[in-house]
């Protein structure tokens, strides 16, 4: 579960488009087969998962047009005699594979849920097996840093984004222009219909909560239950509000790490001034003297260093983060250069530019945002989701821009769950969405840390299970105590 994924994997096969049958949008049966076991995977782990492909329109606004194959996976209820129905899991990211969640990631779900539900997920359009967005790997590798420090760099980023946009469209095909979450909402309902279900239960995680929110707006009568975990706020907000919220929640999680290190003798930096050490590491990265935490042979930049640390706050991996910073302190400057990739590679961040309207019209406007973020955040001055702004500079307006939710008609209120100290989807987002939902939503607060809470807190896990199984909604204001991260 994550808000941002990135990376390059060459050699992705593009799912081909097919001519649409006359009944393209009518409910159709799914042909289930055992899911493929990849090399080096444990067959026992994959055993029991079933995979299928559902043909859906490239553009739901033109449902009789071309279709493509949407990859779906499921595991049927282990105790058919107590089966409740279908639980659809909405993957995060953008970029997470719901098919892989079902194939190899079922520890995400309790035994109680596996007994009572058919658990289904999918690769969202443009991701993994569902006509992935792919682009020239060499061009993707040239992506400018979001640390834009001059008007020339700002203009160059716009030129690059437009070149990459055309390249990805060429290599991906028509689906590229229809990867917004409004389209994915229609895909989810097509899955529901193909499964023969009148209603589904839905559990969305991180970016997948936006999918659940928008599905509830369009199809409230088709939801039996709705869980939104690590809540993404797609409500109306400006570019500055989005960046401020993202920077503040990342900084809060880093501060929690520092506070732990000050008290825990298990921290390898116990007794050290971590703020000063971090400032020095950022300075070394700015001079090209620091190895990248994820690729030790190449140089880190202040942004890639921040991004690597940000990801370690997801669990959170506090002890490992302290060890990393200590190693970086004495690290030698890297001497290698990243290899120039060939072929095609996925661009999993492309949906941001369809789902978020975060305009920055001039370099002066961008520079003012950056200065404010640096002034207001002691350590993580460059929020990793700055990519959601810089990657979309110069591109067409989002087709699914932010707006407050207007959900009416849920039979059972949605259950929201969020950690107080979530580095990616901050608690303020959860309270904002809860406000938008009003009587249609109840917020369960996990008083601990990390991105996601279902598997971190037995209290949260039990509350969500009880809600999904028996539709028992916690009292408003319910909290679950923090569980200290393992050191």
TrEMBL record:
Cleavable signal peptide: 1-24
InterPro entries linked: AB_hydrolase_1, AB_hydrolase_fold, Pept_S33_TAP-like_C, Serine_prot/Carboxylest_S33
Record GO terms (molecular function): hydrolase activity
Calcium among keywords: no
Domain Peptidase S33 tripeptidyl aminopeptidase-like C-terminal: 390-480
Short name of one Pfam family: Abhydrolase_4
All copies of domain AB hydrolase-1, residue ranges: 86-281
Keywords on record: Hydrolase, Signal
Matches recorded under Gene3D superfamilies: alpha/beta hydrolase
Transmembrane recorded as keyword: no
Family from the record: Belongs to the peptidase S33 family.
UniProt protein name: Alpha/beta hydrolase
């Amino acid at each position: 579960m994550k808000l941002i994924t990135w990376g390059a994997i060459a050699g992705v096969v593009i799912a081909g488009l097919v001519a649409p049958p006359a009944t393209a949008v009518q409910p159709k049966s799914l042909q289930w087969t055992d899911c493929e076991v990849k090399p080096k995977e444990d067959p026992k782990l994959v055993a029991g998962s079933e995979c299928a492909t559902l043909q859906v329109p490239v553009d739901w606004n033109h449902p009789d047009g071309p279709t493509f194959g949407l990859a779906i996976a499921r595991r049927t209820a282990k105790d058919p005699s107590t089966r409740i129905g279908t639980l659809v899991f909405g993957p995060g990211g953008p970029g997470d594979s719901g098919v892989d969640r079902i194939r190899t990631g079922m520890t995400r779900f309790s035994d109680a849920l596996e007994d009572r539900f058919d658990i289904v997920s999918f690769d969202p359009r443009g991701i993994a097996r569902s006509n992935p967005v792919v682009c020239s790997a060499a061009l993707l590798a040239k992506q400018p840093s979001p640390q834009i420090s001059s008007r020339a760099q700002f203009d160059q980023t716009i030129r690059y984004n437009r070149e990459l946009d055309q390249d990805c469209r060429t290599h991906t095909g028509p689906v590229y222009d229809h990867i917004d979450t409004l389209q994915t909402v229609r895909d989810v309902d097509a899955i529901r219909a193909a499964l023969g279900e009148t209603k589904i239960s839905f559990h969305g995680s991180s970016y997948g909560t936006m999918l659940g929110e928008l599905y509830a707006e369009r199809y409230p009568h088709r939801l039996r239950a709705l869980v939104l975990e690590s809540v993404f706020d797609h409500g109306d907000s400006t570019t500055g509000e989005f960046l401020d919220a993202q920077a503040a929640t990342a900084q809060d999680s880093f501060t929690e790490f520092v506070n732990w290190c000050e008290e825990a003798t298990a921290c390898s930096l116990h007794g050290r001034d971590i703020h000063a050490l971090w400032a020095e590491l950022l300075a070394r990265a700015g001079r090209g003297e620091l190895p990248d935490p994820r690729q030790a042979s190449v140089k880190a930049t202040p942004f890639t260093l921040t991004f690597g640390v940000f990801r370690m706050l997801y669990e959170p991996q506090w002890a490992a983060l302290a060890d990393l910073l200590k190693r970086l302190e004495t690290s030698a400057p890297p001497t290698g250069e990243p290899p120039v990739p060939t072929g095609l590679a996925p661009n999993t961040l492309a949906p941001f530019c369809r789902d978020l309207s975060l305009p920055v019209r001039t370099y002066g406007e961008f520079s003012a945002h950056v200065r404010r973020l640096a002034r207001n955040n002691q350590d993580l001055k460059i929020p990793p989701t700055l990519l959601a702004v810089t990657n979309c500079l110069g591109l067409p307006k989002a087709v699914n821009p932010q707006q407050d939710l207007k959900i009416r008609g849920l039979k059972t209120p949605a259950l929201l769950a969020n950690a107080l100290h979530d580095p990616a989807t901050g608690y303020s987002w959860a309270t904002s969405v809860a406000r938008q939902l009003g009587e249609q939503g109840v917020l369960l607060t996990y008083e601990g840390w990390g991105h996601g809470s279902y598997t971190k807190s037995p209290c949260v896990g039990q509350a969500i299970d009880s809600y999904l199984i028996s539709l028992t909604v916690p009292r408003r204001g319910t909290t679950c105590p923090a569980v200290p991260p393992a050191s």
